[in-house]
Amino acid sequence: MVRSKSTEIRANRGSRLAGYLAGYAMKLWGLTLRYEINGNPGVTAPPIAPAPVIFALWHNRIFTMPPIWRGTGGKGRKSVVLTSASKDGTTLATAMSMFGLGAIRGSSSRRALSALIGMKKALREGFDVCVTPDGPKGPRYGVQPGVIKIAQATGAEIIPIHIRYCAAWRLKTWDRFVIPKPFSRVSVVFDKPHCIPPDLDNAGFEAARSALEKCLADGSDDR
Fold first, then answer.
1. Which residues contact 120 (CB under 8 A, 6 or more apart)?
2. What is the pTM of this model?
3. What's the pLDDT tens digit per position in 36-68?
C-alpha cells in the first residue's frame, strides 16, 4: 500500500478514530443504497486495460464511491487516493484504508510537489490513482492543473466518474458535500478516458484542463 511519510503531515489519534468511524458509517450507509453502474466500453465491461489510470470525481461525491469500488472500476486493481496533508486528510485516509485503498498525502495547497511525486511513483508501480481535482479547498467544480500535469508526466489516462443522486442532503461546506438519503438510488457513470499529450503548449494545456472540467460538470446533477 502506498503511503506518503512526512513530519509535515498532521495526524493525531482523534483524526484516525474519526476516520474509522467514518469508514464504518460509509460501509453501513452503502448497504442501504441502490446503485446503478454504467460504464463505457473498456471501463467496467469489459474491464479497463491493465495499465494504471487516474480516476477523477468531484470532492463532494466521495462518500458513496468507496463502498462499491471493488465491484466496479476498482475490481481486482491496486488503488490509492490523494488526500490532503491536514487532519481532515488523515481522517479521509484512515476511512479509505477500510476499503483497501492506500493514500498519498498532499494537495494543491500543501505539499503539492510531494503529492505529484507520490502519484507518479504510484502509477509507475501499477497503482491506479483516484483524485478529486477540485479539492481540498476548491473552488467547487473547478479542475486544478495538477491532475493534467500528472497525466502528462506518466501517460496515464484520466477516467471521469459521475455520481448522481435521486435524493440527498447537501451540507453547508465549501463543496456542498453530498450524502444520499438511505434506501435511495445512486447512479455511477464511468466516462470515456481523457488522453493528455505530453507536449502541450499553454493553450493546449488549458484546453485539456477545461475539457475535463466541462466533462465532470456535465455529469453533475446540481449545475
1. 150, 153, 154
2. 0.87
3. 988 665 555 545 667 899 999 999 999 998 988
